[in-house]
Amino acid sequence: MTVRKAWILATAVAGAGLSFVMVLVVGVYLVAGNLANGVGPGAVGLAKGAVPAVYQTLVQKWGNLCSAINPALLAAQLYQESGFNPDAKSPAAAQGIAQFIPGTWATHGIDGDGDGDRDVWDPNDAIPSAAKYDCSLAKYVKDAPGDPTKNMLAAYNAGAYAVIKYGGVPPYRETQNYVKTITTLEESFAAPVGRVQPSQQAAGAIYYAQKKLGTPYLWGGNGTPDQGGRFDCSGLTKAAYESVGITLPRVANDQYNAGPHPERDELLPGDLVFFSDDLTNSRTIRHVGIYVGGGYMIDAPRTGAVIRFDPIDTPDYFGATRVTEDGAKALPTSV
Question: How many helices (H) and strands (E) does the chain have?
Answer without folding.
Answer: 13, 7
